[in-house]
Hints:
By secondary structure, this protein is of the alpha/beta class. It is built from 13 helices and 11 strands. It is globular.
Amino acid sequence: MKNKLFNLLIFIALAIFTSxxxxxxxxxxxxxxxxxxxxxxxxxxxxxxxxxxPSITEILATIAPLEKIVARTPHCTYPKEILKVPVIDxxxxxIEKLVKLKPDLVFVKEGFLAIEQANQLxxxxxxxxxxxxxxxxxxxxxxVKVGKLMDADMQAALExxxxxxxxxxxxxxxxxxxEKDKPEVLILISSNPLYAYGKDSYASxxxxxxxxxxxxxxxxxxxxxxxxxxxxxxxxxxxxxxxKQNDNIFDLYPELKQSKAFKNNRIHYIDEDLISRPGxxxxxxxxxxxxMVKNK
Length: 296
């Protein structure tokens, strides 16, 4: 009788264990919404993560253990420790290699991965979480979100608080400035074709904290609009900021030599990675812009 009871208890225990194991993915995931409104099922504990965007890679490297990052893009080069992480091609995305890596979660910035590809990955059991950056504050919020998903809440909160404190100080100083003393600045992304950071871009928000304003005042459907040379000349920015990759700008558009920026020698070059990656180096980027736009 005792043996039968013992065997029955063992059977029940195994049945419960098997049931839990068979439904493991369902019971150990949580539903959340990413920045573009998609419902995403994410494991309660994320052990393997892939980043398909350099700025998000920098966030992950700042707040999470490096060993959790199992792949990065060829463009993810900061901090230097991240170079130890294997590379995955993104243009086009190497889906086969991504599946073999078995990540619990893939992070990507809005616009860096087609929704169809995200849906394809999720059908293969890989969760995809989109982040969106329109302002400096969005970066801080993103750090907190990533921290929660990566079980790194404390480190993320510390990083977010530090950045938030610096951002507040910059905001106070910017708001103390007289409006007419804030120069109109154009930040170029590329010279051929001609793209710039528009009014609704995060870089435009950086200019606000730096005590300046975007020379582009109208809203475009794209935060990074393509400009015509006529429009560029019409803007007539007081300061022009670009990258060394675009140092041929005046050869391509000699009419720009008539601009205030050229006549007053207010042409500045900024590190492309610093301005193009809305991540933990946001304060460094703003301070660099602040140095460039200050009155001589």
